[in-house]
Amino acid sequence: MFTKIGRNVAVGFVLSCVTTVAQDPSSVPRVLTNPKFHAAADFVEKDHDRFVREIVQITEIEAPPFKEEKRAKAFAEMLRQNGLTDVQIDAEGNVIGVRKGAGDGQPIIAIAAHLDTVFPEGTNVKVRREGTKLFAPGVGDDSRALAVLLEMIRAMDAAKIQTASDILFIGNVGEEGPGDLRGMKYLFQKGPYKDKIKMFISLDPYGLGNDVTTGGVGSKRFKVTFRGPGGHSFGSFGLVSPAYALGNAMLKLSKMQVPSRPKTTFNVGVIGGGTSVNSIPFESWMDVDIRSETKEELNKAVDTFTRLMRDAGDEENRARATSQGKIEVEVKLIGDRPFGQIPAGAPIVRTAAAVIQTFGFTPTFGMSSTDSNIPMSMGIPAITLESGGTGSRNHTLDEWIDVEKTASVKGINIALGILLALADVQ
Amino acid sequence: MFTKIGRNVAVGFVLSCVTTVAQDPSSVPRVLTNPKFHAAADFVEKDHDRFVREIVQITEIEAPPFKEEKRAKAFAEMLRQNGLTDVQIDAEGNVIGVRKGAGDGQPIIAIAAHLDTVFPEGTNVKVRREGTKLFAPGVGDDSRALAVLLEMIRAMDAAKIQTASDILFIGNVGEEGPGDLRGMKYLFQKGPYKDKIKMFISLDPYGLGNDVTTGGVGSKRFKVTFRGPGGHSFGSFGLVSPAYALGNAMLKLSKMQVPSRPKTTFNVGVIGGGTSVNSIPFESWMDVDIRSETKEELNKAVDTFTRLMRDAGDEENRARATSQGKIEVEVKLIGDRPFGQIPAGAPIVRTAAAVIQTFGFTPTFGMSSTDSNIPMSMGIPAITLESGGTGSRNHTLDEWIDVEKTASVKGINIALGILLALADVQ
Lengths: 426, 426
Description:
Two copies of one chain form a homodimer.
Chain A: H1 7-22, H2 27-33, H3 35-46, H4 48-59, H5 69-81, E1 85-89, E2 95-99, E3 108-114, E4 128-130, E5 133-135, H6 139-158, E6 166-172, H7 182-189, E7 197-203, E8 211-216, E9 218-227, E10 231-232, H8 242-254, E11 264-273, E12 279-280, E13 283-292, H9 295-319, E14 328-337, E15 340-341, H10 347-358, E16 364-368, H11 373-377, E17 382-385, E18 390-392, E19 400-402, H12 405-423
Parallel strand pairs in A: 3-6, 3-7, 7-17, 8-16
Antiparallel strand pairs in A: 1-2, 2-6, 4-5, 5-19, 8-15, 8-17, 9-13, 9-14, 10-12, 11-13, 18-19
Helix pairs in contact in A: 2-10, 2-12, 3-6, 3-12, 4-6, 8-9, 10-12
């Protein structure tokens, strides 16, 4: 998932916190002027063609929600080939590998990109290249970021960088759709690194590198199912139909009023139901996503939505015959992403901002719904960074990224700089 | 597919044609008073438990549209075990077997029940019995009728009946939903018996035996697909969505005005589309069935429906942003069942009516949409008969039939009597 919001708001926010950011966390100048960092950054530039090949390689292994195994195995192998020891796939399916620091294993900084895409099995994931543009479902979201993790490890090794902290590299499952952040929930609440990760970075699909996500948008997902008696399309014509109730529900939802600030949204994603063209369905359903920047507006939207669903069922029961049974509606919570917010003055935010400024950008800050929502909601310092370059149309079959070298390399090096400033270079 | 209509109309029709029916086709009294027919009818009564076991056996082999092979193989084997020689599965998947008559193979009378059900793979088709009632999806439509074919063969053999005509027994594919009568289309237009079948009987799921379908209701089926640019549920919020266009289309269709006489109906059967809960779909679709007793009303309904679909697309394009692309709608014909009508005075109708009267019932005549639509539309004498007993709720998971012996046996023997009166007994 990747979407930036509140940039206008963020500008004000940036201006107001420039004074704070001016007190750079001490490690930033030291790390960014270290010849080893320069060697690493140079390596990223020279190695760019290989990086692009790896984006393609990762993209072309399909990874639908709950079916990330194939890509996970391949990514674990790529981590190993890039010299990471101790690579494993945890019980939830996350690929995790440690790059040891100089210390005693504490603190651990984790950096993650997600394995899963929104696309179902059978989607054509072959990458098409036009100039510096790569086109394919998932090529940005989040294959580019997975390839950035590999590039970071290679660059650090090439420059013989030793960090103070251990760094946990993660290719995680369950970021998209029905995954409901299961990879992160397992990592932070159950897995072997539970309670050990002190800071967390999530890598977004693309973006120049100036934007830092410091807030997690909350979302709730629902499966709405209308059920009825069903029947023969001709013989039982006139009976209530779950399909018409669902149609009405979709139309009602489409007209629901939500504020643009705080940004609040709704979506009908997947729909289904029915057995054959000549049968009144006994069940018709839809999956709905509702999000907001504030808990209050999210709850308001969910309340209105729930009422609209019941209205749609009631209206169908009044519109057609209920002699064989009525339409019943079930609104079931299938996903719940917690809100989270990292304070502007938190060292992780100040460090990121200082690195971005050193690279000549003005940092912006926004809210989004990413893997960082989980650590943020638990009070663990977490940010989501851009992974370099540009792109668009993620979550569609037309998704593309531009790997034009200058912007692509700069974005990787900003993320690498932030990671190393947080982990400190010996 | 099984649904009776126009019974009120049919009563008038019956009264008006009683004088015609009074001129019984000559074979009826001769065949029905033949001791061999009585022996066959007695056998049906004695063999009833076995008949019920076979209904269960057939029902419990699932047979979704286009996936009838497993049931077809089992039914072919059952025909062979019941002594029918020359059983084959034709290129379309129909099971066909001949019971030779005394003649030179002409004329051939065909009698069919359909293998397919409306239910998708994985539906629980286990039969539950309560007293004389059997509950299971497809138990009536059309498993009972398939078992009737087996019972007819056994009864004729037990009574050593030789007919003048050859009889072609058929367990056919493609009667339901997307099948679009493909079994019958192949049989009458392409298969080895093309141009050879001179009369046709289709067996409906259940019914006491007094009703004869002499007219084929026409239907057209459509797949309506709305396509749009898709996008991220949060980042692209505000873009047009195929889901909302479809919802609106379903609601508009639900309000479409159609006459009750001639009966005209519409139905949204199966719906689908979308990739994940957090993506605006790039495609949402529905399968629609439209039927009428007259061609004129069918065409009118189809015209209105088509206009409503375009309106729904246009309204979505006005309701939300089209900056990434517009909603396009495709209305594709996926099924077309021709109309057909057998004249009241046709020998096949008069023979059926005479047999029904001999059994003490007043025949009724109606229109429906069955396998007979194909031969009817080609001018081949064809009727659809009830297969005995009672039942209800076909095309739903609550489908049931009552195999209470008296009504069950009487219905079988009426159908057998009509078949033998048409085929003549030597």
